[in-house]
Design a protein that fits this description.
single chain; alpha+beta; five-stranded antiparallel sheet; three-stranded antiparallel sheet; 17 helices; 59% helix
Length: 451
């Protein structure tokens, strides 16, 4: 409606600013100077200085009335000089950029008001989301994304209005076909719409994750299993969002899949490993044998804590504080030890040998004390010692102990070994060196004759 109203104004195709004669320019310059002088000398604070409260209110009101009357008079004078009525003045372009983009006072007015709305709305939404994030304990990054999404939505709405007021040239740029999919024209406007929808879906999923995680924590549910369930929910939401987006722009997803079937078969032979990872990811997620937070050991002797289980890869935090990206097929085809699968408590051991003739009961006592002195070792089940064997050079013992935090168990083993060495030195228990006896039965005499 606005676009048709403006484009029907006389002189729409050419701006009036560059078509005036010198007398009109002179009169307009005098009007601008007069307008500046009116607003400078009719300042309310200057006219009401030193007056009483009631008189100050009266003077301020009078100042604004004077400003309004004189400004209205200047506007009517300007319209008479230009030979336009009020509707024609606002609808007729002041200047036409490149002969294609008309810049009218109405367009400038809406542009300034739109920028002002963006600034005010940005301040409002920033405060509102800050309070909401404090109340609902949102992540700061999510709060920033929410504010950006709200600002982007308002900018798109205002931009659509600006494009209509700027004429058909810019609208044609957004409506020009870039390519086609199943006879559906893909334009820059459709791409902007699609990206905006997908961005909104991504942000919505992150908000759902925050609410879902809070609910899991409040109910005391298993976080690893809950993460797996949400991962499946997230993939389902993405599939629905993509199908909805394609359908909204006119692309039939059934026809698209059917037309791409041969291509997908051809690609399948070339990227079998990639599909293997995706299928393995689905197996891992559905079976729930490996969850976020579990400590696992892969056949390649990689030990780490599972930080994320994705559809193609998973993230493992190693003991060196390094994030390893592990393809999911390693969890399905390789041998994997999940230290956290059945319960939190896990048994480990430390081996040690002592010299023959040592008091074995004293050794047993010292080994158990060395384990119990560590805060990480739990008391139930209690540590115990096995007398494993009579070795070639030593009496071999194995100390068993239980811990709940298995991720840094190697550091704990080192602490136990330090404690064992201190206690053995204190009680004069000897850890022997390896000993070998060499017996020469024949050939010694011949060696002596050669010398």
């Amino acid at each position: 409606m606005i676009d048709s109203l403006i484009t029907e104004m006389p002189g729409y195709s050419e701006g009036w600013l560059l078509s005036l004669d010198y007398k009109q320019y002179l009169q307009l310059a005098l009007m601008v100077i007069a307008l500046v002088l009116i607003w400078v000398f009719s300042r309310p604070e200057k006219m009401s200085s030193g007056a009483s409260e009631m008189k100050k209110i009266f003077m301020i009101t009078l100042a604004w009335v004077i400003r309004g009357v004189l400004t209205t008079g200047l506007v009517l004078w300007a319209l008479s000089v230009l030979g336009l009525n009020l509707g024609e003045f606002f609808g007729t372009p002041v200047v036409t950029i490149a002969g294609e983009i008309p810049v009218s006072p109405f367009f400038l007015f809406t542009f300034v008001i739109g920028i002002y709305l963006l600034v005010v709305f940005n301040k409002f939404i920033k405060r509102f989301i800050a309070k909401a994030s404090e109340k609902w304990r949102f992540d700061r990054n999510i709060a920033k994304q929410l504010r950006r999404f709200a600002m982007l939505l308002l900018f798109i709405l205002l931009g659509h209005l600006w494009l209509q007021l700027a004429g058909s040239f810019l609208l044609d740029l957004f409506n020009d076909q870039l390519f086609a999919i199943n006879e559906v024209a893909i334009t820059p406007g459709i791409l902007v719409y699609t990206l905006f929808i997908l961005y909104g879906v991504s942000l919505g999923i992150r908000l759902i994750e925050v609410i879902y995680t809070r609910h899991v924590l409040s109910k005391g549910l298993n976080m690893g299993q809950s993460k797996t369930v949400f991962q499946l929910l997230k993939y389902a939401l993405w599939v629905v969002a993509i199908i909805f987006t394609l359908d909204s722009i006119g692309i039939n997803i059934t026809v698209l899949v059917a037309s791409s079937a041969a291509l997908l078969v051809g690609l399948g032979f070339g990227i079998q490993g990639l599909f293997n990872d995706y299928i393995s990811g689905l197996v891992v997620l559905f079976e729930g044998l490996i969850k976020v937070g579990d400590v696992v050991e892969i056949e390649s002797e990689l030990i780490g804590r599972v930080m994320d289980v994705g559809l193609r890869t998973s993230k493992i935090l190693t003991r060196d504080n390094i994030i390893m990206i592990v393809p999911n097929h390693n969890f399905v085809s390789d041998k994997v030890i999940n230290w956290s699968y059945n319960e939190r408590k896990t048994r480990f051991h430390v081996d040690v040998g002592v010299a023959y003739g040592s008091d074995v009961r004293l050794v047993e006592k010292l080994l158990i004390e060395s384990a119990l002195e560590q805060d990480e070792v739990i008391n139930e089940p209690k540590p115990h010692v096995l007398f494993r064997d009579f070795g070639n050079s030593s009496l071999d013992f194995r100390l068993f102990f239980w811990v709940e935090e298995v991720f840094y168990v190697e550091i704990l083993k080192s602490k136990i070994r330090f404690t064992i060495d201190d206690k053995f030195r204190e009680h004069e228990v000897v850890i022997p060196f390896p000993q070998r006896d060499l017996h020469l039965k024949t050939g010694w005499e011949k060696m002596g004759d050669r010398e």
